[in-house]
Amino acid sequence: MVLPEDDPLFRALSAATCRAFREAVTTLPQDVVEALRSAAMREPSALAKNELKNILDNIAIAEQRALPLCQDTGVPVVYLTVPPHVPYTDTLICAVGEGVRRATREIPLRPNVVSPLKRENSGDNTGPGMPIVHVRPGSCLSVTVLPKGAGAENMSRLAMLLPTESEKIPRFVAETMLIAGGRPCPPVILGVGIGGTFDGCAALAKEALLLPIRTMDPFEQELCDAVNALGIGPMGLGGETTALAVKVRMAACHTASLPVAVNVQCWAARHSTVEVTW
Amino acid sequence: MTRTTLTTPLGDEVLSLHAGDQVLLSGIVYTARDEAHLMMKERGIPFDPVGAAIYHCGPVIQDARILAAGPTTSARLNALTGFLLDRGVRALIGKGGMGAEVARDLIGRGVYLACTGGCAVLAASKMSLKGVYFEELGMAEAIWIIELDSLPLVVGIDSHGNDLFADIALGANKQFHRKFT
With respect to CATH, is domain B3-180 assigned 3.30.300.30? Predict the structure, then answer.
């Protein structure tokens, strides 16, 4: 029997997972940094400007020192693309888990993963069902990580609207941020899932957070404007920038359903993709 | 904008602060999250609470060094904070604000100081680690004793009943109902 550590694919994928976490937690995607910079220029409120300046200073120090930019290094959410010549087996899932354990030790990540009721910490950010791994077919083997902090995740919501209630979607999105206030570390990015099923809709909302935020379509812009009209501002201290962007992903759904999910992402919108070669 | 300089242990000087003021805090602070609050309630406060500042934070520590230590969401501790203020704690530091009951408990006694959420390395660059209580609770939940050197904060709730977060939330609520009802 080949031990996983001796399997070149296992070694390459676990190393790539660890590298993706290091990139994700120490540097933000360029589109997010640009959006924060442009918000800092636009903000008329001195307090809000100051919060955004702290955020931009923090991003610069983290990158320079190669340290996690936020102490909440999140729970590990992982997306794999698997090409036709790579068998989808347990080896892939185990390799991702090993990459998470290594990242936790080496970067380090804060050990955040606990059993849900006893609250016992595994110490290595893995456990039953963790990391969460989504697998898709692709042209190459790649690993995308989205470390998700709890402050924003806890503010996320899902509604099973009536099929005739599509006009209520902007209200539900804005209401999610109204309830959240300053708690999810605004300025946020909102991932909105529309359609699918109860569970699929939540997954769409999270995947929407992987979309580039440089552009919004007119519907996304309408949702974003509704959120920003609330005036919650950076860190809930007031201001014009409550959301940097709203991104939407849709799926077909039952004729009797209209699921809508809002996944709240703090300004530290960390994600990174590494292509695996071996 | 001018910044008021404060050093722990804190006294009546916190009573002259107003919501929206910017401050630079130095001296010892104690991190505490959900589990540490429960433990202090059950077993007692392991440090002198008079004039103390509690920091809602679960840091990343490696080799006795603080690598990242931004604030956590303070509202989770709304129901677990009264006993600390009763014992003389003067400042709560965190993010996102706290509930109306905490704002009431702060009147005439202390302040809530908002730290920029997620700014963990900026905060850590102004900290040195001095010790730990309740280490068995794990890295995120233990009480870490930290010395601050001029950490920039904003007075979110003052001791006169003013709550910046509540004001902003009220405005947001008005805007929401104007647009959607």
Answer: no
